[in-house]
Every structure is written in structure tokens, then in C-alpha cells.
Amino acid sequence: MDITFYPGPSKVYPQVREFMLDAFDEGIVQLNHRSSSFMEICRKAIEGIKQKLNVPEGYSVMFTSSATEGWEIVSQSLTTKKSFHLYNGAFGKKWLEYARKIHPQAAGQRFELEESLPVETIAIPENTEVVCLTQNETSNGTQVRNEVMRQLRKRYPAPLIAVDATSSLGGIALDFTTADVWLGSVQKCFGLPPGLGIMICSPRAIERARQIGDRTYYNSLLFVHENFVQYQTPYTPNVLGIYLLMRVMEMRESIQVIEKSIRQQAAEWYAFLGQQSAMQPLVQSAGVRSDTVITVATEPNRVTDLKEKAKQRGITLGNGYGDWKSSTFRIANFPAITREEIAILKEFLKEC
Questions:
Q1: How far apart, in whole angstroms, are the C-alpha atoms of residue 352 and residue 346?
Q2: Of 63, 170, 315, 334, which is least surrounded by CB within 10 A?
Q3: Which pTM does this prediction carry?
Q4: Which of 251, 274, 291 is the last residue before a domain boundary?
Q5: Dihedrals φ, ψ of 109, to 5°?
Q6: What are the tens digits of pLDDT across the range 46-83?
């Protein structure tokens, strides 16, 4: 089997094969999602996330089809007119463009690649209902760190804050108190196949949804929340995905232990790339570099050549994305990827 460093969908924990066989043998794959057995699986999956990721007391955990569905929920259930989007890459920009399809008044501000989120200089309009940002920008390998999130929350306490943390949720310790909505998916730092999203909401977000009071949407946050309080879903769910998530959360260590390893590996990656002559980290500012998605810059012809040679060796590198599509490749630094696999990739890159 090839070694994949693609930043999502990415490597699946090898134990998932056994978990999938268990799900078949135990009848999980044909389980009635209104049954008490499913409710118990859902409960354990949710409690596993809360415990292992240190989700604050009172915050709600719900499942969606993807983080992108979460964008829609934020626009439909938590926004009546205007959201404000802070972004420096392709996915943050896409979120703004998506929000504008629902609320044309949605606005935003772009900040620079090497720039930390400029909390002191951004001007969020007073009528903003939700501030939206991407904590880990997968397109360019940057992140907004917890301390910056705290500054943003302190300066703008009134609007809700919604965060897409798809490429970091489950990989690093996030301070969930700094925002009201956290969105993610399982195909990255959770080491699982795609097809399941995670949404974590503060009590304030749920109360805001109640104030708006709209249950007409298929994925109304109120309707979703009312079901998940009972460990049920408003739709026929990805039962297998929830079961696999439950098993993985039972297996995994706490986020503090995982984060320590991920940050160490990231530091080693950036040190390694700094020693290479033909390739460098795209992001030079250490304070804004991602720990979970390493974006490597080199000549476009070299990017194509490297990816092809890697493929011949049984290694999958991540494509560049957005503005950096032709001049970069990306390396996932997710928990399911082993140090042995990282060593193989480094040796390959040194040879090339």
C-alpha cells in the first residue's frame, strides 16, 4: 500500500480495518439509527471527543456530513444578514463566497500570508453577527494560534465567532472557549475515511439559534441540536463513520499527548526543509506556520517531477492549492502518519 501524505483525505489508522470488520460482524453497518444501540454508539463517540479533546463543559458536539455543511449551518441558522470573514487563503475565501450566496451582505478582509491575523487593525463592522475564520488554512499551510484567537475574542466579544479547523481538529489542542462554533471533518487528524463532519457549539451559539428560531432548513442548527441532545440525528446518519470515530477516540491518547508529538514533528520538518537548497517552506514566518499541513515551495517543473517520482516510490504527496497550486506541494503531518513513514519521505526528498 502506498504511503500517503495527502492533506485530506489522508492516512487512515491501520486499526480501522479491524474496526470495520467488527462493524460488519456485529451488525453495525445495518443498525437502525433510531435504536438504543445506535444512541449508545453516538453517545460514546460524542463523549470521546469531549474527553480526549478537552471540549468545555456546556459545549455541544454534533455530526454533519462535512465541515462545508457547517458553513451552511452558520449562514442559515446563526446569521440573518451579515457575517464577516477573515482569511489569507483559498478555503477562507471560499467560505466567504459561499456565505454571500445565502447573505449577499457578507463581507471580509484578507490578510497576508506571512502576517499573523491582525487583530489590532482589522475593522469588523458593528452589525456583524458572526465572525468567520479558518484556523488552519490548508491551501497554504498557515494557522491562527490560540493566543491570537484569545485576542480576537477579547477585542470583539459581541459577535459569534465561527472557526473552520478541519485540518487541525484532533491534531493540536484548541482553546474552544475562544469561539462559538468549531467545524471539522474526520478524514484528516482523526485518521478516518471521509464522510463525517464534526460541529462543536458553545451555549451562546445554541441560544443565538433559538433567538433566530428558524427550523425550516434541512440542517437547521436547532433541529440538529435537539436531536443530538438525545444522541439521535435529524437524518439517516453515517452510522459506520460514527462507530469508527467512537473506536478511534477510545484508542487515541489525549490531545495534549498528540499535540506534543505533532508540534515536535512539525519543528523537525521545518528544520529539515530549511537545510534544503532546492525547496523551502512556503511560509517563512515561524509564528504563523501550520503544525499539521507543511507546504513546500519549489520550482513548478520540480513540483511535477517530485510528485511523479514519489508516486513511483509508492509515496503520495499533496498537490499545491489555490494561488500556490503550481509552485508548491503539501505534506500532511497528521497523527496517523508514523515517524517511520516520515523518515522514508525525508530520505526521498534528500535524494531528489
A1: 10
A2: 315
A3: 0.97
A4: 251
A5: -140, 130
A6: 999 999 999 999 999 999 999 999 999 999 999 999 99
